[in-house]
Amino acid sequence: MQQHFSTAGSRAASTKTTLADKNASFRRFKLITFALLVAILLAACGGSDAPPAEPEEAPVAADTATAEPQPDPTATTEPEPTNTPEPEAEPTNTPEPEPTDTPQPEAEPTATAQPQQEAESESADMPAVGQTFTIVAEESEARFIIEEELLGQPKTVIGATNAISGELMVDAANPAASAIGPIQIDAGTFVTDDNRRNGAIRRFILQTNQYQFITFNTTELIGLPEAVAVGDEVVFEINGDLTVRDITNPALFVITLQVVSETELRGSAATIVAREDYNLTIPQVPSVANVGTELIVEFDFVARAQ
């Protein structure tokens, strides 16, 4: 038993020794480990202290590097502000005056053109700018000429009257502004070489008891010269409306006008009229046949200034 306990004690002692050795070695290991950790920490701290010396040298290099490109940014900044604002200012300024300038001249000519046109129309409607001449009935004559067969023989029938009235407004400086008419003829005063024919014309053909006047109203003067002076003879045409009884048709007269003096005009005018256009029916008479279908209407007139 004692051997067994001694053996057990020796084992326990050896075990304690072993444990002590292990504890000692473990302590050494801790110390070594701790020393290594401290060394690692010191190395880490030493590494953090070393780089600050490097950035101190880096700013010098940075300064030298930035000092060289300083002229470049100054050179680039100057053209950029000068180029960018100029094109931006020009497009904004140019479109603004264009819309304001274009409508104003368009509105102005329309305003000026209207009074000019009104002035021209007023001058055409104002005969007072020329001189008015009145037809002198005693020295004037209106007539018609027609062909027929009387008792089997050809005959030219002429009916005439001086019961003619009317006015002519003549603008010598601007003849186109002149005006003629209306011209009126007393239809009941036509006289031929036969009283029976005269009666037939008044009662049956022209019906003068109901329609007293034959009237011509001028609508247009054609072919007038640019100016008229005393002594001139002017040939031109007159468009207008000829009314016989209650029928009106357009008629074209060719007129020759003589400027005798500043106060006297003489002229003649003529046209051809178809009887059927005015329903001018000839009464059936045994001695009369083959009455013409057309007749000539003529004017000879003297007009004096008033």
**What is the name of the CATH class of the largest domain?**
Mainly Beta
Number of contiguous helices: 7
Low-confidence stretches: 1-9, 47-95, 99-103, 107-128
Please give the CATH architecture of the largest domain.
Beta Barrel
Shape: elongated
How big a fraction of the residues is strand?
25-35%
Binned, the helix content reads: 40-55%
Tell me the count of domains: 2
**N-to-C span:** 189 Å
Rg over CA atoms, rounded to whole Å, is: 65 Å
Q: How many beta-strand elements?
A: 13
pLDDT averaged over residues: 75
Give an overview in words.
Strands 1, 2, 3, 4, 5, 6, 7, 8, 9, 10, 11, 12 and 13 form a 13-stranded antiparallel β-sheet that branches. The chain has two domains: 2-72; 127-305, Beta Barrel (Lipocalin). It is built from seven helices and 13 strands. By secondary structure, it is α+β, with helices and mostly antiparallel strands. Mean pLDDT is 75; it is low at 1-9, 47-95, 99-103 and 107-128. It is 41% helix and 32% strand.
What is the fold's blueprint, element by element?
Elements: H1 2-67, H2 71-77, H3 79-83, H4 85-93, H5 97-101, H6 103-124, E1 131-135, E2 141-150, E3 153-161, E4 164-165, E5 167-170, E6 179-180, E7 183-186, H7 195-205, E8 213-222, E9 233-244, E10 247-261, E11 264-274, E12 288-289, E13 294-305
Antiparallel strand pairs: 1-5, 1-13, 2-3, 2-12, 2-13, 4-7, 5-6, 7-8, 8-9, 9-10, 10-11, 11-13
